[in-house]
Amino acid sequence: MSGARRFDGRCAMVTGGASGIGAATARLLAAEGARVLLADRNIGLAEAVAREIGSAASSVALDVTDERSWEAACAHAVETLGALHVLVNSAGISVPANVEDATFALWRETQAINADGVFLGCKHGVATIKRFGGGAIVNLASTLGARPGAMYAAYSASKAAVLAITRSTALHCAERGYGIRCNAVLPGATHTPMVDVYLDNGPDREALLAQFASSHPLGRIGRAEDIAKGILYLASSDADWVTGVALPIDGGFLAR
């Protein structure tokens, strides 16, 4: 008889669950026993991933920039899953542009999805999770939030905001005794559809991929599953004395 899995009896919602790190995280959560709700604005793709995962997964439409959409998604999570114990804020965008070339429209869209979306997720995630005895929130930041790049003015700023929101939320929940931990992961370059946009639009896909890999001391680009494994650790009881942490999962990028 197999032993208990880390998330048996737990209910989780993953934003950006239709693809990339979000989808990989949803798959691992389900494999570890969780009931998982994939929340994404691309509901068709989210439904397809949920069907692939099986009976432990379902989907809901979510625009992370819209507070009413968050309220509806959290209510749907409670209605369909019966509770909410884990929230993973994975939805995000990345469009390269330096401070001169970035338009204000790009800046505002990036902040709305990456920063506002995480703020709203933490706000409504805390309000929902505390009703069920506590749990964990894990936010997707980035190494570029800790070490900004010239070509990522808007993105770096948005991910730096995620780090601040994470720490503030962690302290608030600890002070209130909610039993909710809040942490962040900082992925390095990870092979997801977001990174494929860079690779496909560059002059030489293989050369650019090699450049990404060489910037990480472990010598390769990350896989979505690499990041998902770290997210599951932070969301699990293995990390029950860990809160307010920004965990690099970056092949050594930030160690340099």
Task: Write a concise keyword list for the protein shown above.
16% strand; globular; 256 residues; Rossmann fold; two-stranded parallel sheet; single chain
How would you describe what is shown here?
There is one protein chain. With 256 residues, this protein is of the alpha/beta class. The protein has a single domain (11-187, 223-246), classed as NAD(P)-binding Rossmann-like Domain (Rossmann fold, 3-Layer(aba) Sandwich). 48% of the residues lie in helices and 16% in strands. It contains 9 helices and 9 strands. The chain has helices at residues 20-31, 43-53, 67-81, 104-129, 143-146, 153-176, 193-201, 205-214, 224-235; strands at residues 11-15, 35-40, 57-61, 86-89, 135-140, 180-187, 190-191, 222-223, 246-249. Strands 3-2-1-4-5-6-9 form a 7-stranded parallel β-sheet, sandwiched between helices. Strand 2 (35-40), helix 2 and strand 3 (57-61) form a beta-alpha-beta unit. Helix 1 (20-31) packs across helix 9 (224-235). The longest helix is centred in the middle third of the chain and has 26 residues, at 104-129. The protein is globular, with a radius of gyration of 17 Å.
